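Course assignment 3, question 2. Fill in each field.
Student: A.L.
Task: Predict the tertiary structure for the chain below.
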Amino acid sequence: MAQFDVHRNTGNHTDSIPFVVVVQSAQFDDYRRRVVVPLVRSTAIGKVSFAKAGIKAGAIFVRVHGAASVGESLTAQNVSAVLRKVGKWIGLEREEWERVSGHSARVGAAQDLLALNIDVASVMQAGRWKDTRMPMRYAEKVLASRGAMARAAKAQGRA
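Answer field:
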């Protein structure tokens, strides 16, 4: 199941990076590497960098270039590019990492949550959906495996 866990940083630089996000996915199970995203304190980045990135207030989600340079505000395209780079880095096949987008985590989370029999209302809340249409569409293959025909096939020894 794709998930993002936030942990207190117990390693180096806890003053400037108090927390880290660990990205977990079944796709990463066969790899020895993990995807860890540092959550850097705004005071550790510096005001000049905020001005360069065009950030005046609000949430601080920006691209980080190296150890001391902050780039532009994150966009859907930036997130997709970062996820593709991570997919390539962890050794996914080219056809797999080329298809990865920021939306992949949202679709995968809906599929994983419904596969775990988590109720649709909770899935809708997690994904900020207002109706059931999209989470049900994303999970149609998962749900079909639990449907009446799948259960009948299993009961008759055909599955």
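Instructor remarks: The two ends are 24 Å apart (CA to CA). Residues 16 and 136 are 41 Å apart (CA to CA).
Grade: pending
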